[in-house]
Amino acid sequence: MSSKAKALKAQGKPVIGFGAGEPDFATPEHIVEAAVAACRVPVNHRYSATPGLPELREALVAKTQRDSGFSVSADHIVVTNGGKQAVYNAFAALLNPGDEVLLPTPYWTTYPEPIRLTGAVPIELATDVAGGFRVTVDQLEAARTPNTKALIFVSPSNPTGAVYPRAEIEAIGRWAVEHDIWVICDEIYEHLVYGDAEHHSMPVVVPELAERAIVLNGVAKTYAMTGWRVGWIIGPPAFAKACSTLQSHQTSNVCNVAQAAALAAVAGPLEPVYEMRDAFDRRRQLIYSGLSAIDGVTVLEPQGAFYAFPSFEGVLGRDLGGVTPTTTSELADVFLDQINVALVPGEAFSAPGYARMAYAMGDDDIAEGVGRIADLLRRG
Q: Where are the alpha helices (H) located in 293-362, listed in sequence order?
């Protein structure tokens, strides 16, 4: 869908893309300047330590304590080439063939594939809009078997925008401790929460879990640095060492200049982050109100990240310009072909009938894109 949208844009079509999970802001200037300065330092032209520059790992220790209250040391941390390598390496270091990993749906599309590459098995647990797209302890317990090794826990969520309240996080964490289950916590959207919602780190809420908790994070979303490719893994030292050993054979160190930029980001002021969050909050309300007004479309108000996850089940089967889509994949093609609007169909997240719409774009584009959808569905 993204490739098709880019091709249409290259042809001069007025495409509005709700697909990419990428902030539209420029990376804050002080971060860019740190990278420029790092380019001129000869030591950055050479190999560096695989688990990350020592000064960056120490800064991540301080940042983790500041932002979530999780106390770790540098030997808990491995800096990776973006969040995706953090996901892959964490799974590769933890999982063995035959292990089962509990994976609530809807999920980010990257999670199941590296699980399967290890020979482990993702066990999908369906959540729904009635439950706020949040998995329950009862669901987890019903799915648990002697082969259950880990749980993937994401709050705030991509793709739904759901945020778990503290009490539910504590209940899930205590369940994991009781049954010796690892929890892989993806916290990359930790700063992007709105209204009364709050982010809580599970190993902070349940300290007993710390030795079986893996936290994944990165600079991409919080600091508008998707292209810089810097993420990190936080886990027990022996686990972190295994991740570093694996990475030494894959990619060796992360680009030193990108690490210098990440250092400036995590050790610098949070005011630019708050400014971006305020803009996302405004856009969140704009897309939520616009989608809610469309007959046949329902949407849960997003609490975090920068995604709306509307249900289009009420409009499937309608004739739309001579085409009758019966799945959201087909509907996404209709939107792109007829009104030049790109979104990601729910099938990608194991949630048919839904679609993910990123609101990491300007207010005018959000209003225009949602307006095109409303007009098409109204006229049929």
A: 328-339
Q: Sort 53 into a burial class: Cβ within 10 Å, 0-12 / 13-18 / 19+.
A: buried
Q: Is the pTM of this model over 0.85?
A: yes
Tokens representing residue 17 in the block: 């893309």
pLDDT tens digits, the chain, 380 residues: what are they? 778 888 998 999 999 999 988 999 999 999 999 999 999 999 999 999 999 999 999 999 999 999 999 999 999 999 999 999 999 999 999 999 999 999 999 999 999 999 999 999 999 999 999 999 999 999 999 999 999 999 999 999 999 999 999 999 999 999 999 999 999 999 999 999 999 999 999 999 999 999 999 999 999 999 999 999 999 999 999 999 999 999 999 999 999 999 999 999 999 999 999 999 999 999 999 999 999 999 999 999 999 999 999 999 999 999 999 999 999 999 999 999 999 999 999 999 999 999 999 999 999 999 999 999 999 999 97
Contact by Cβ (8 Å): 380, 318 = yes
Q: Could you give the domains of the chain?
A: 2-21+272-379 (3.90.1150.10), 41-267 (3.40.640.10)
- Strands 100-105 vs 77-80: parallel, antiparallel or unpaired: unpaired
DSSP state of 347: G
DSSP 366: H
Contact status, residue 363 vs residue 285, Cβ threshold 8 Å: no
Spatial CB neighbours of 363, under 8 Å, sequence gap ≥ 6: 282, 283, 286
Helix (H, G, I), strand (E, B) or coil at 70: coil
Q: What is the DSSP letter of 76?
A: G
Q: Is 126 helix (H, G, I), strand (E, B) or coil?
A: strand
Q: Are 343 and 325 spatial neighbours (Cβ–Cβ below 8 Å)?
A: no
CA atoms of 34 and 148, how far apart (whole Å): 44
For tokens 């993702």, the residue is 122
